[in-house]
Amino acid sequence: MATVRQLDPGTRRYTRHIVFELAHIIRERDIITYEHCRRVAVYASRLAREYGWSRRAAHDLALAGLVHDLGKNWMHNDILFKESALSNDERAEMERHPSIAANILHTYGAPKTLVQAVLHHHERYDGLGYPDHLAGEEIPLGARLLTVADVFDAITAERPYKRAMESITARDRIVAATGTHFDPAIVAAFVRLLDTHPNFLIPSRISPLPPRPAPHPVWMRHDHFDEE
Ligand SMILES: [Fe+2]
Q1: φ, ψ for residue 164, nearest 5 deg
Q2: Among 105-109, 127-131, 154-158, whose mean pLDDT is lowest?
Q3: Which residue in the list 72, 82, 112, 162 is annotated as catalytic?
Q4: By C-alpha distance, which of 209, 203, 211, 200 is closest to 157?
Q5: Mean per-residue pLDDT, 119-123
Q6: 92 CA distance to ligand 1 centroid (A)?
Q7: Which CATH number applies to 4-79+95-204?
Q8: Active-site residue flag, 72
Q9: Cα separation values, 179 from 25, 45, 147, 184, 188, Å
Q10: Residues 71, 118: Cα–Cα separation, whole Å
């Protein structure tokens, strides 16, 4: 197998090679982020195909999905693994992750379209996202596709601090944010995809959370005491 030194930067083979190497680095640091990236890669490429992209372009977007959260590798453990809401300062630090990833990918010689999709995957259609507050079609199309796949997985995946939501609920949430968070034409393609593929959801490969504790017996519930 060729090493990165033997490959020509700018070729698709080179890009695949560096993306897989960087994805491996994500996996070494944080398996949850890696698994998220892996699912987003698949969701984004399926969505791109439904939207009308060629198989080749959709595959390139999958590579962007695989490393879209690479910048989280540079977050401090206290932020990356925090199980409660981030403070304002921590959130500001976390919001650097798309720029960090884009800088690394650019330095490695990744194609501009891939770098741009990663850099702008947290922009919103209404301009309220980050890092550059781009709006509407200013946001590269790859990033607009990636955003929908990213949010869908964030809602439907189980995390240490939250349980998974049904894909039907995620679908409703995404539809509700049409034109604000998401590009309407991309939401329409995503809804078509979900409606025609009942098994769209990729199961998590990470072991599930332990079962919830049994609910308190009725005599211990607050509403019982409230009635008195
Ligand atoms: Fe992200």
Answers
A1: -70, 150
A2: 154-158
A3: 72
A4: 203
A5: 98
A6: 13
A7: 1.10.3210.10
A8: yes
A9: 35, 22, 13, 6, 11
A10: 10
DSSP code of residue 71: G
Taking alpha carbons only, the member of 55, 50, 59 closest to residue 200 is 50
What proportion of the chain, given as a percentage, has pLDDT over 90? 75
How far is 7 from 10, CA to CA, in rounded Å? 9
State phi, psi for 166 to the nearest 5 degrees: -60, 150
Nearest CA among 103, 107, 110, 108 for reference residue 63:
110
Residue 53: other Cβ atoms inside 10 A: 18
Find tokens 């700018």 and name the residue: 10
CA of 217 to the centre of ligand 1 (A): 41
Average pLDDT, stretch 12-23?
96
Give, rounded to a whole angstrom, the gap between the first and last alpha carbons of the chain.
74
| Confidence band, pLDDT 50/70/90 cuts, at residue 225 | very low
Query: From the CA of 97, how far away is ligand 1's center (Å)?
Result: 7
Output helix, strand, coil percentages for the chain, rounded to the nearest 5. 60, 0, 35
